Structures
1.
Amino acid sequence: MRALWFTAGLISVALGAIGAFLPLLPTVPFILLAAVCFSRSSTKAHDWLLQHRLFGPSLRDWEKNGAIRPSVKRKAVFAIAISWLLLLSLGLNPWISAVQFVALACVSAFIWTRPNA
């Protein structure tokens, strides 16, 4: 089972890294998932992720208090808004755009309601 968790963690890190460059693929959920997977499979991999230069501070804030830094909140909501604008530019069915808007608005509200780190 540990090997399965570890593999899921590696896949999550890879998807998170890809998401850093693709605007419609989220990075943070995959990195959070990787942290969970590594915590169940490999202390060494989990510690590596927590000490990572880019991901570590936010992961430590989240694991410790479920908190998000205000600067990270602003960046996340900005990225969400840009993603939705990109979706709008595709000329999708208005219902699809509306559903996306509601989903992204809920994610944004969740982000803003987390405690500040």
2.
Amino acid sequence: MKKRSGLYPRLAVDGSGRKVVSGAGGVLLTRTARAVGLDAALSVALARWRRPFARHDPGKVVLDLAISLAMGGDCLADIAQLRAHPQVFGPVASDPTVSRCLDALAADAPVALTAIAAARAAARATAWATAGEHAPDHHVDASAPLVIDVDATLVTAHSEKEGAAPTFKRGFGFHPLWAFVDHGAAGTGEPLAVLLRAGNAGSNTVVDHKQVITAALAQLPGGHARGKKVLIRIDGAGGTHQLLAWLTRRRLSYSVGFTLPGNLASIQKTLAAIPATAWELAYDADGQIRPGAWVAELTGMFDLSGWPPGMRLIVRKERPHPGAQLRITDLDGMRITAFVTNTRRGQLADLELRHRRRARAEDRIRCAKDTGLANLPLHDFAQNQIWCAIVALAADLLAWMQTLALTAHPARRWEPKRLRLRLLSIAGRLAVTGRRRLLHLAATAPFTDLALDALHRLDALAAPG
């Protein structure tokens, strides 16, 4: 009988490999940055922070950090993975230089954040124009608006960092507020704005929502700052008089979670008085009729006199999932939820399904936490503000790469973890022939052909400048 030697081959391992690049698939991100002009835009925007005779461009330092996060890093030191391969990623600053650059930007954080946002907006305009029919703003109008989701999340701090505070979930850390543009069912999404806040910041703070929405609108290419072709979608944290009035004055479409007005007795009495004929069948996530769920418009049944004109109140009732706890405002064993919108056209079931798709923002936040947001690694609040801007840059790069290079493929919807495992982690080998430098991606990697096709698509795009 043959003796087994184990489940895996026994290899003699050494560290003498030369011209081998781990994470060679990261070239997809560098090509994307060049294709949309992000490298040049950051270099110009952050030029004021470059010291005389300095070797490293602050714009490239920030972009290198974003690429590092996109490839799975979660702290400044992880930029070493790029520094090890200058033939692919160019000269990468040392750890002390990176720290000094972040300190310099944090010392003038409002100006630095404005500069980074301007570079992102310029690159986004190029990316969406280049994407054509695959861009999220392609053929948007009042009936099919561009959707901006606003949502907050909790980020735990494991040390006494500046601005960290107890959270409403009895944790300790930060409570950043994000705005994402939704790419719809065919894609993922990309961040537009982020506001880092202390952990005890309120969920429904109107000033913070206004600031984030204003910053998000400024990120959109020209022509989308106003009008019903932009829909602001928020959960119940946005259901305040001031915010809805502000959205109305800005002439923006909205779909916002809402708490039914009045006391418990009046709410239950009104809900019980709804005629059976007012309820329509609701849809599931695929747009198909969902048994056990109904929607109805109750605009005229509640006192909405203090709310903005044109606001419609739509209510959903459904049988709760097994194990779900009913709330005190629920009626007859049915879960009751409500939202308001100023959209005048469309079936109730379609409008309600559109609102429930706000849950995609939670997917975007989860992806951001996989791309550096889960760990705010710096001590000063201003430093972590810059870090959040870099997290947004990393998420932008991934989204633009998918939009431009992975169209008509399921990879267009892959989340960061899957992109890293299947594409960005592909290994390569450097070679020089004549005056050409070549990067040979691993022929045995399952998704090398997809990576090469994506690179060909990016190379076919005219680089700005």
